[in-house]
Amino acid sequence: MSNNEQQPADHGRQEESLWHKIKDYLFGAQAGPAPYAECNICMNAELQIHGIPPTSDTVERKRGTVLPCGHMMCTDCWIKLRASILVSQQLRPHLNARLECPMCKLSLTFAGCGCQVRGHLLPRDGAAAACDCVPATTPEGGAVPDRCTECRYSAIAAQGVDMFNVSEIVTRPYITDVLSRPLHRELASEWPSWAGWPSAFGLPGSDPLPRSNHPDW
């Protein structure tokens, strides 16, 4: 990380609402004072992000979540928002409540399976490489896939394919397992940026595929 995590707070710092702007600073693409992020829902806490110092010693800081659109909020507010939509869908279905980004209104429901997007926790400690575990957001060319990871694996398993435990596979730094090939074919057909089978999937004889390119929302 080229910027100093211990940089003191100063009046030149600006709030950023999009994750890729924060990441630009963390990886040296943006010069100047460190930006910071606040929860765009409760508006009363700064988000904990590895490499981003607080604006003061007294400010409240909370764990943050980034959405596929790149907008960020504290994880507490994100959990409450998801829960409120689920309750409304179950108790007041006539209202047709939809989970969407409160800032840009991007739909946060997988169109193909109806599951909610989970978002991704912002890295608050560890090496700078942790920041690269967040999938590409839409301003960076990313997209919300048609179905969630679990539903993809369930569909493949239903076809009689013996798969590893889903949680073990999606948390590995590289998707290289031979048993994952059916999933790769699914992704290639549903998500154009996964085209190039097999070299794009980090299989033997090709360059490994970073997990940050995996649409793990």
TrEMBL record:
Keyword set, alphabetical order: Metal-binding, Zinc, Zinc-finger
UniProt KW Coiled coil keyword: no
InterPro entries: Znf_RING, Znf_RING/FYVE/PHD
Signal peptide: none
GO molecular function: zinc ion binding
Name under which the protein is recorded: RING-type domain-containing protein
Domain RING-type: from-to ranges: 39-105
Gene3D superfamilies named in the record: Zinc/RING finger domain, C3HC4 (zinc finger)
Top-level taxon of origin: Eukaryota
